Amino acid sequence: MMKIKLIAGLSNPGPEYTFTRHNAGSWYVKLLAESYQERLKSESKFYGYTGQLTIGNYNIRLLIPNIFMNFNGTAVASMATFYQIEPEEILVAHDELDLLPGITRLKLGGGHGGHNGLKHIISCLKNNQQFYRLRIGIGHPGEKSKVSNFVLSKPTFIDYQLMTNAIKKAVDCTETLFFHGIIKTMNRLHTTIQSSNTKF
What we know:
With 200 residues, the chain is α/β, with parallel strands linked by helices. It contains five helices and seven strands; from the N terminus they run E-H-E-E-E-H-E-E-H-E-H-H. The chain is globular.
């Protein structure tokens, strides 16, 4: 039985960041909400935009933090605490440097891999890393010194198409996750035309 009760898409606030690579997680949550005709609303006590979906017998909270990435954990932990949601009942969608654009991967647990949003979430969940992650590939600039500017910039037209197509597939796979579990979802989601030699 799928236990996910909260899906959060990591982001930076403001229109200047909306279409940057770092906000890819929020793209997934926005598209997921749209596919269920759900309108996200600003809710200050959760530091972001929230909504609710019903998939079969499952009620799922949606969250896009409206605070800077380094503090996204505050929003996630606030909603989790209020609704008594455990870390293993949370799915966090985020950008992933170690995957090429067009690749998405789903997994449970793991470290933060240098991602400041994940790092803060882990800290705010009392160092519990056992939440689900939807990793949305954005590629890597090639040098560590270029990462900050890279994630805060908009993808090229081709990369944007690859990323949005991958996110659409992830949205299509969301019902599979709730009705058939993580293994079948991974099998479907991880089968892509775009190939990658990056780690999982």
